[in-house]
Write a structure and sequence with these properties.
By secondary structure, this protein is of the alpha+beta class. It contains 1 helix and 14 strands; from the N terminus they run αββββββββββββββ. It has a two-stranded antiparallel ribbon. Strands 2-3 form a two-stranded antiparallel sheet. The protein has a two-stranded antiparallel ribbon with strand order 5-12. The radius of gyration is 21 Å and the shape is globular. The N and C termini lie far apart (63 Å).
């Protein structure tokens, strides 16, 4: 009987410890205030829309030639499922090079993009972000997918 009680106590204690040490993402419900979105560029940064605090939407700053050209916004705030805020993401053609489609995503890192003035050699990605101390055991979220009538 003593061994069974000890075993049950150990299981309960390990469950409590594992759930209390679970790593949480910052502002995981996007309910904190939204701030200026400043994607990185080699010419410095420039504001392109808003982004949730502790997150970055993959908006594109464009390039600077006296003023910023090619800014492209691919995300915005919207109402969430049983919450005030959610992130609405969409793929969008670059405002200058219409054949360059900018993918919409949200990250905890810093987004960047590059292309020559004709829109060629386009590339982009993310650096930095959050260090995870172990592999996450679960990810959950709500989403809505929509597309135009001519999409496949």
């Amino acid at each position: 009987m003593k061994k069974i009680t000890l075993l049950i106590s150990g299981l309960v204690l390990s469950t409590i410890v594992s759930t209390t040490s679970a790593q949480q993402l910052p502002n995981n419900g996007f309910e904190d205030g939204w701030v200026d979105c400043n994607p990185w560029t080699s010419n410095g940064t420039t504001k392109v829309g808003k982004t949730p605090t502790s997150w970055t939407i993959s908006n594109v700053a464009g390039y600077k030639a006296g003023i910023w050209f090619g800014k492209t916004q691919v995300g915005e705030a919207t109402s969430g499922y049983e919450s005030t805020n959610a992130v609405k993401l969409y793929n969008s053609a670059n405002s200058i090079a219409k054949n360059q489609i900018v993918p919409g995503y949200v990250t905890t890192g810093t987004t960047w993009s590059t292309a020559d003035t004709s829109g060629g050699n386009a590339d982009g990605g993310t650096f930095g972000g959050i260090s995870f101390s172990y592999k996450p055991d679960a990810v959950s979220f709500c989403y809505t997918r929509s597309h135009s009538d001519n999409s496949t």
